[in-house]
Amino acid sequence: MRRGAGCALAAVLLLATACGSGDGGPPADGPEVLRVLAGSEIKDLEPLLGKAAAEIGVRVRLTYTGTLDGAERVAGGRADGELDATWFSSNRYLSLIDGAPARLSTQTKIMVSPVVLGLKPAKARELGWDKGRVSWSDIAAAAGQGRFSFGMTNPASSNSGFSALVGVAAALSGADGALSAEQARAVTPRLKDFFSAQRLTAGSSGWLADAYARDPDVDGMVNYESVLLGLRDPVTLVYPDDGVVSADYPLTLLASAAEPKRRLYGKLAAWLRTPAVQREIVTGTHRRPITPGVAPDPRSGAAQLIELPFPNRRGTADELIATYLDRVRVPAEARFVLDTSGSMRGDRIDALRQALVALTGADTSASGTFSRFRGRESVTMIPFNDRPGTPVPFTVPERDPAGALARIKEFAEGLQANGGTAIYDSLAAAYDRPVPPGHYGSIVLMTDGENTDGSDYAAFESRYRALPEDRRRTPTFVVLFGESDDGEMRRIAALTGGAVFDARSTSLSGAFKEIRGYQ
User: Fold this and answer.
1) 502 pairs with which residues across the strands?
2) Is 366 within 8 Å of 318 (Cβ atoms)?
3) N or C: which end of the chain has fewer CB within 10 A?
4) Is 0.85 surpassed by the pTM of this model?
5) Distance between CA 223 and CA 287 in Å, rounded?
6) Which residues make Cβ contacts (< 8 Å) with residue 271, sequence separation at least 6?
7) CA 319 to chain centre
């Protein structure tokens, strides 16, 4: 089963909009700059936001973050003084965190996109879902019978996956009020049937779409309507008649924002809701307008959306995510090909140890908790220097994972650095091992330098292309660190359908945590 390819979306990156400084860098902070903490879904609005400087005198600086990391940053007060506003696809999870509502001020909904199922037209016709009424219960039953396959983002990393998980659980439970933990537990067996048909996962909705486009064997996706409408190859959109969970993209002022920034926020929020800008949002992103009188994309569903109930307690939401990861989803099979050459001595090997230990539960933040190694997951560590080391396998049980996590921690703390760097022989050794049936396979390659021993990239490419198709479906997620060869590492990611995560400007722990959203 192929993992969805993806880029490093959860790392905090400063990106300029089109109204940035002349040298291409982010606009300097100043009285005309609104500093916004945003989800990666907002990135497609950068060209539009660039017009705000010329039209209303507001320059927007976007800082991208993962949903859970961003929610914790705001709720913990770490955004105060550094940022003026947030712009996530939804504030639902954020609002459940103790203390978070007090950190927020005015919220302005900008656009709407429901999370729905998109299927290849032939599959939709085969199932009879191209017309007539379809419920989430119908979809779950067909999934459990193996009648179709789909991709969906990781609910612990992406709002589209979280919204889909909540929506399916609420619909299957028949909840007519806030979804309770008891109701979610009651439908766990049916959720397991539904997610048995999942074949792709990813840390973001955009990268899921890219992975789906590359994999002809997957029948569809659960994703934002806007993403599905933007696919190169059209899909049939299925709107379950028992309801959906929609993103409403609230541009939200932080309570700590200074008065000049509040005025910028007001100007930007009002401008974004003007009919002209709303029409640009519809044509450029396929999202539904929030302003009355502006026509949506004609391909959007005509029926009025029924919004499914959402949990009103954080504990319920967190338990639902944990259930998905530990009991419901297809389990992961992750291989870590780890550079332990001599150049890793000192701080670098310490950073590698800490990054791996964090994945055993040492990171107690919400995002850290969900990124640790999960129940039913197979983990194989392959340290290397001038030759591949002996693979060390671990299996995390569904219940009581403490023992397995302790053994992984012990392995990580025992890593030592010496010798040369045989990148390609070691990566080939990881591909020599078949992925167990019924698992998502992925490889993480971390190196701090260039290849000095063994075969070269050309030899690896030739060997990779000769592999059986099922092994070539395993992507490699490359972590740039130290003096990694940027060009060759990106070639590995492109060849295998993986992604590059740059730990040179952030941290190794942060990069590893990001990757977990794609495994």
Assistant:
1) 480
2) yes
3) N
4) yes
5) 12
6) 52, 55, 56, 58, 277
7) 19
Neighbour tally for 323: CB within 10 Å? 22
Query: Is the distance from CB of 325 to CB of 317 less than 8 angstroms?
Result: no
* 179-188 b/e (C-beta count within 10 Å ≥ 16 → b): bbbebbbebe
Q: Which residues contact 215 (CB under 8 A, 6 or more apart)?
A: 2, 151, 199, 200, 473
CA distances (Å), origin 82, targets 30, 86, 226, 242, 505: 12, 11, 31, 42, 19
Place of tokens 């789909």: 150
Q: Which of 301, 1, 326, 325 is nearest to 149 (CA)?
A: 1
Please, are residues 337 and 446 in contact by the beta-carbon 8 Å criterion?
Answer: yes
Closest by CA position to 105, among listed 124, 84, 89:
84
DSSP H or E stretch at residue 321? helix 314-323
Give residue 482's identity as a one-letter amino acid code. G
What letter would DSSP give residue 515? H
Residue type present at position 211:
A
In one-letter notation, the amino acid at residue 418 is N
Phi, psi of 383 (to 5 degrees): -75, 150
Q: Do β-strands 288-289 and 250-254 pair in parallel, antiparallel, or remain unpaired?
A: unpaired
> Which amino acid is located at 327 in the chain?
R
Can you read off the two tokens belonging to residue 223?
Answer: 């994703």
**Other CB atoms within 10 Å distance of the CB of residue 24:** 7
Instruction: Show Cβ contacts of residue 243 under 8 Å, excluding neighbours closer than 6 positions.
Output: 167, 170, 171, 305, 306, 307, 308
Give backbone dihedrals phi and psi of 395, rounded to 5 degrees, phi first. Answer: -130, 125
